[in-house]
Design a protein that fits this description.
mainly beta, RmlC-like_jellyroll, Jelly Rolls, five-stranded antiparallel β-sheet, QdtA_cupin_dom, binds thymidine-5'-diphosphate, RmlC_Cupin_sf, Sugar 3,4-ketoisomerase
């Protein structure tokens, strides 16, 4: 597991009551947030994602539990461990991503720069190489 440059650690605000982490668009997150979704209740052994995008940028935060993210931008393949609500992984459109090793309590929060559009997905790996490979 390598810590990639897209992985940031954000501040945790804590007091005697507990913890709080804040994320703001154009500050922590380098894009305007148009959509939020979260992946949870993932069955053991499941691997999901298997796509890149044309335009969409995303920020992944495992707000509970842990999971791993495999990234491939055609130049570099990395595995990133998201095991803290303070870790924010920024994905660029050309980051082919696969999420795996979800803990039972994992809640993966995704902040997205675009509304859902099936046409913005590249789900075929050969197509991905054709679009983004140099
Ligand atoms: P899918 O893209 O298969 O998830 P993953 O890439 O994490 O494996 O999404 C599962 C289903 O949810 C699929 O039918 C598309 C739908 N979906 C939406 O309708 N809107 C969304 O914003 C997302 C992320 C998925």
């Amino acid at each position: 597991i390598i810590e990639s440059s897209e992985l940031m650690t954000v501040n945790e605000l804590g007091d005697e009551r507990g913890l709080l982490t804040v994320i703001e668009e154009m500050k922590t997150i380098p894009f305007e947030i148009k959509r939020v979704f979260y992946i949870y209740g993932t069955k053991m052994g499941v691997r999901r994602g298997f796509h890149a995008h044309y335009k969409t940028r995303q920020a992944l935060i495992c707000v509970s539990g842990s999971c791993k993210v495999y990234l491939d931008n055609t130049h570099r393949k990395t595995d990133v461990l998201l095991d803290s609500p303070t870790k924010v992984l920024i994905l660029e459109p050309n980051d082919w991503h696969e999420m795996y090793d979800f803990s039972e309590d994992a809640v993966l929060l995704v902040l997205s720069s675009h509304l859902y559009n099936a046409e913005d997905y590249i789900r075929d790996y050969d197509k991905f190489l054709e679009v983004y490979g140099s």
